[in-house]
Amino acid sequence: MSDPRTGTRARALLATVVLCALPFYLDAFWLRVGLFAMAAAVGAVGLGLLTGSAGQLSLGHAFFLAVGAYGYVWLAGEPGPGLPPALALVLAVLLAGAAGGLFSPVAGRVRGIYLGVATLALVFLGHHVLLTADSVTGGFNGRSVPPLTLGGFGFTADDPELAVLGVPFGAEERLWYLGLALLAVTCWTARGILRGRPGRALLALRDSETAAAVMGVHLAGYRSAAFVVSSMYAGLAGVLLALAFRRVVPDYFALALSVDYLAMIVIGGLGSVAGAVAGAVFVTALPLLMTRYADHLPLVAAPGTAGGPVGPTEAARYLYGAAIVLILLFAPDGLRGLARRARARPRRRPATTPPADPAPDQAARVKEHTP
């Protein structure tokens, strides 16, 4: 029998080759969709560790994305320290982790809906700070995002001009490979956590706190650690989103963004890294696609017009809201579970003919020897 890991590695290699080749064939719109999806996937993987693996409900994910995004903008820009962008990226992720660490004592002692309400307060508090701290955040109008440079190579359209195999590489093409690298590191580290001792402790904590405590799991410690790690993933996602948007505004980091991330991990499958990525792609790409093709969709108004009852963003929310209901009813393990069952479905075996009845003379001889 073939090793199932060989098939998994082959599929991963094929997906990597395809993703690396896409910038040579796609236009800027599709590359931007991919960038937003990859940034969302990084944050969704972090929330999946917290909610899907540790069983901790969080409605404050948007706050930590804002910390990462605005942390990078302030650290790398003016006014601000004006640090090298690569250093500012790392410090922004650490800043989001530090914000999660400040809240971790609450996360370590509160669980369930109570933690959800507590983290909900972070979103409203953070949004108020973003609007009022004009010197740091730029207030309502936000701030432009300093371009990222690594070793003299800039992730902008003309810094320096670059063409690969005759294809000009602008900002979207360059950021595409940066997003792929960050997403790969995110998935690799998250899988390492889940497959190691911390992952087993988090799953035990999610399934039964009593059993986990009996096995020696430090409940408050692992809850706090999961919250900090999830916050750092969210900070990295915030930095990548800021680079993709090129401008950050406070209204983007509102409660609706936290709800979107919960939808991602539920649709993709709780506790699954691949499921979180699939859910992030679905939830992120759907409104963008509906906005682009609104003219061809019934009952959907194009942006800036009144040609339908709902706009594309609202229609997309209705659709993935319906998807959540269907997932909870018919596939609680999400898209990841559906894909796993589709691969494991046994092949149909060829029909076999039933054995023929014994010959008449053989049946007669048996009857003769029967007392």
TrEMBL record:
<keyword id="KW-1133">Transmembrane helix</keyword>
<keyword id="KW-1003">Cell membrane</keyword>
<dbReference type="InterPro" id="IPR001851">
    <property type="entry name" value="ABC_transp_permease"/>
</dbReference>
<feature type="transmembrane region" description="Helical">
    <location>
        <begin position="83"/>
        <end position="106"/>
    </location>
</feature>
<dbReference type="GO" id="GO:0015658">
    <property type="term" value="F:branched-chain amino acid transmembrane transporter activity"/>
</dbReference>
<feature type="transmembrane region" description="Helical">
    <location>
        <begin position="226"/>
        <end position="249"/>
    </location>
</feature>
<feature type="region of interest" description="Disordered">
    <location>
        <begin position="341"/>
        <end position="371"/>
    </location>
</feature>
<feature type="transmembrane region" description="Helical">
    <location>
        <begin position="113"/>
        <end position="131"/>
    </location>
</feature>
<feature type="compositionally biased region" description="Basic residues">
    <location>
        <begin position="341"/>
        <end position="350"/>
    </location>
</feature>
<keyword id="KW-0812">Transmembrane</keyword>
<feature type="transmembrane region" description="Helical">
    <location>
        <begin position="261"/>
        <end position="289"/>
    </location>
</feature>
<keyword id="KW-0472">Membrane</keyword>
<feature type="transmembrane region" description="Helical">
    <location>
        <begin position="318"/>
        <end position="339"/>
    </location>
</feature>
<dbReference type="Pfam" id="PF02653">
    <property type="entry name" value="BPD_transp_2"/>
</dbReference>
<feature type="transmembrane region" description="Helical">
    <location>
        <begin position="175"/>
        <end position="194"/>
    </location>
</feature>
<protein>
    <submittedName>
        <fullName>Branched-chain amino acid ABC transporter permease</fullName>
    </submittedName>
</protein>
<feature type="transmembrane region" description="Helical">
    <location>
        <begin position="35"/>
        <end position="52"/>
    </location>
</feature>
<dbReference type="InterPro" id="IPR043428">
    <property type="entry name" value="LivM-like"/>
</dbReference>
<dbReference type="GO" id="GO:0005886">
    <property type="term" value="C:plasma membrane"/>
</dbReference>
<feature type="transmembrane region" description="Helical">
    <location>
        <begin position="59"/>
        <end position="77"/>
    </location>
</feature>
